[in-house]
Design brief:
single chain; 661 residues; mainly alpha; 40 helices; 2 strands
């Protein structure tokens, strides 16, 4: 203060007049002139009001403008006790500014340091906050004032400020993992839930909703919030956003708090069952239609809204009801117009959950024929095309693996066991399947899960005859072939890749092309490169089935491929494997493996070659086929074995052997 006064006076002196001269011109001649030093000392001795001192101290505490090094740690309890005592005295002193600043300081301490938050609980902060919330909410709005209590003489404005200050502190304590449980035990959750319904200001609603958002991080807490009326409070808080006067930023923040809370709550199966009855789903879908797509703030709100839809759609009983709200058109519009990664991520999960059909746990068999309504509707709305466009956007070199995973999941579910959607994918004028080839060519730039999902999708689509030839034309067959040699840790990708190739070579033109193709990495033919795979120990059953299926399809009506397949030694190896399996079946009763059926199909196609019949018989195949025909447990297996025996019987030199055997 003295330095400022001296500087100001020196400036005035340099302008040609003194402070005394200026004052004389205003008030007349003084009794005694004051020197510069006397004026500086006088200025430095001015005393600010006590309110300013206390409020300023609370401001410094809240902004953490102090250092606890040295002996400061010993003073921490004194600081915490002081703040609590000042807040507890709020009903007596009735000073708005001090109460609000102290509440803010306590919230700042609790949010910044878990040790401070825990110390506040130990020093008795919770009863003070509960009392303030009780005065502000229950008594003022729900009860009748009791004249015997002096606190009731406090103004409505003070009570509003009291609710705001207490809510700020409670929100900070709830958001702190170490003190959230203590707040619940002390009864601090109910007033915050109630404040969501009755808040009169933007600040109150922001504190209350942010606390709810951070609170429900476990199923136990989500169910507790549900039992305390959390869903109804969130719905009313959404309506408050339209009623209270807020700026755009504040409204967006509060809406995000509410939607984030609902998103977290919907992770609980118990809560999901109640969300529909509460009417929240209709409300948020209605609000989502008013959101302007593409804006940064709107993207966050849209992503939260879709996440709630996807979580609720995870429960099969909710899917039809959500579907009837017109959510298919909404989600299709999102994937068509919005390129934000977070929005696309949640939209794909929602599409997947809505379109997922009832099936066995391994998804190999579906359990219902009347639950494909969502698949068909998404297909009719051109959703497949928009998903494929997004697949291109998020593919290498600027790939986002997390989004790619969900995009592929959505596509898999939409085409799974749905002939119409598979046919839509085959329409070259609408959908460019080259995007799948580009993604498959990504190599190490995509993660293992993306590669796995892509292999599943390709295997499914390769069942369509027109797609089989197209995949071969665009070079996808070569990329998928490389996946057969991935590490055994990627077992699903390997056997899905084998399944995709098996489906592709079912096309005779592709089969001929495959038999002549060379593997770029080894400069060997595809067929000779396959041979070492059959020597693997403990090969996955699905991998064995699909590899055998590849050979069976290659040998169908193609003598050139039959000769090449026999030269690899794979057929004799499979005969050994099937013989060992049949011996085990005689000792132990268990079901027939699909790989055994496929090996029998391979033997039928190989023996269709005149030059290979005797070689199959001499390799032990004749006796094995007879045993299967006599003792086989599966009709398909017996049918293929009889087909192979019929082919062998066409060879004159083997007819007598067959009769004698």
């Amino acid at each position: 203060g003295a330095a400022l006064a001296i500087t100001e006076m020196a400036t005035r002196e340099s302008r040609g007049f003194s402070l005394d001269q200026k004052e004389r011109g205003r008030e007349g001649p003084p009794n005694k002139d004051k020197t510069l030093v006397e004026m500086a000392i006088s200025s430095s001795m001015l005393k600010p009001p006590l309110e300013e001192v206390l409020v300023g101290f609370a401001q410094k505490v809240g902004s953490r403008r102090f250092d606890l090094r040295g002996n400061g740690e010993l003073l921490r309890p004194i600081l915490v006790k002081t703040m609590i005592s000042w807040l507890a005295a709020s009903p007596q002193h009735g000073n708005f500014r001090l109460m609000m600043q102290v509440g803010s300081a306590i919230a700042g301490l609790a949010a910044d340091n878990a040790k401070d938050a825990q110390l506040m609980i130990e020093e008795g902060l919770m009863p003070v906050l509960i009392k303030m919330m009780h005065l502000s909410l229950r008594i003022e709005r729900l009860g009748t004032p009791n004249p015997s209590h002096s606190h009731f003489s406090l103004s409505a404005s003070w009570r509003e400020c009291s609710a705001t200050a207490a809510a700020a502190a409670l929100a900070a304590l709830i958001q702190n993992r170490s003190t959230a449980e203590a707040v619940v035990k002390a009864g601090g959750l109910s007033p915050m839930i109630k404040l969501c319904r009755v808040a009169n200001t933007e600040v109150q609603l922001r504190h209350a909703t942010s606390a709810m958002r951070e609170f429900c991080d476990t199923d136990e807490k989500r169910d507790l919030l549900l039992n305390e009326g959390g869903l109804e409070s969130m719905l009313q808080a959404l309506e408050k956003c339209d009623m209270l006067k807020m700026d755009e930023r504040g409204e967006i923040m509060i809406r995000m708090n509410i939607l984030s809370c609902l998103q977290s709550m919907s992770l609980s199966s118990t809560v999901r069952g109640q969300i529909w009855d509460s009417g929240i789903m209709r409300k948020i879908i209605g609000l989502s239609g008013q959101v302007e797509l593409g804006k940064r703030s709107s993207n966050a709100i849209t992503a939260c809204t879709i996440a709630i839809i996807s979580n609720c759609a995870f429960t099969p009983q909710n899917r039809r009801q959500i579907f009837d709200l017109g959510v298919v058109k909404f989600l299709t519009r999102i994937v068509e117009a919005n390129k934000n990664s977070l929005v696309v991520f949640h939209a794909c999960i929602a599409i997947r959950n809505l379109a997922l059909r009832k099936a066995t746990s391994d998804f190999k068999t579906w359990l219902s024929d009347d639950d494909d309504f969502a698949q068909s509707d998404f297909g009719d709305s051109n959703c497949l095309k928009h998903l494929m466009v997004l697949l291109k956007q998020f593919s290498p070199p600027n790939n986002d693996d997390i989004v790619l995973e969900q995009l592929l999941n959505a596509l898999i579910v939409l085409v799974w066991n749905n002939s119409k959607n598979r046919s839509r994918m085959a329409n070259k004028e609408v959908i460019d399947l080259q995007h799948l080839t580009r993604l498959a060519a990504g190599g190490s730039r995509v993660n293992t899960y993306v590669r796995q999902r892509l292999a599943i999708l390709i295997a499914d689509l390769a069942q369509v005859p027109s797609i089989q030839a197209y995949f071969a034309e665009c070079g996808l067959l070569e990329h998928v072939f490389q996946w057969l040699f991935l590490p055994r840790t990627e077992a699903v990708t390997r056997y899905c890749a084998a399944g995709a190739i098996m489906n592709m070579v079912a096309n005779e033109a592709v089969s001929s092309r495959f038999g002549k193709a060379l593997f770029a990495e080894t400069k060997k033919s595809f067929l000779s490169s396959l041979a070492p795979l059959f020597q693997e120990e403990k090969m996955h059953e699905c991998m064995m089935t699909n590899l055998s299926g590849i050979l069976a399809n290659l040998c169908f009506r193609n003598d050139g491929n039959r000769a090449k397949v026999w030269q690899t030694g794979a057929v004799t190896r499979l005969i050994e494997i099937l013989r060992d399996t049949e011996m085990k079946q005689e000792a132990i009763s268990f079901g027939v493996k699909r790989s055994d059926i496929m090996i029998c199909a391979l033997l039928q196609n190989v023996t269709a070659s005149v030059t290979l019949r005797r070689q199959v018989a001499d390799s032990g195949g004749l006796q094995l086929l007879l045993n299967i025909a006599k003792k086989g447990r599966d009709m398909n297996m017996i049918r293929y074995a009889l087909g192979a025996l019929r082919n062998i019987a066409l060879e004159p030199g083997l007819q007598q052997i067959l009769i004698e055997t």
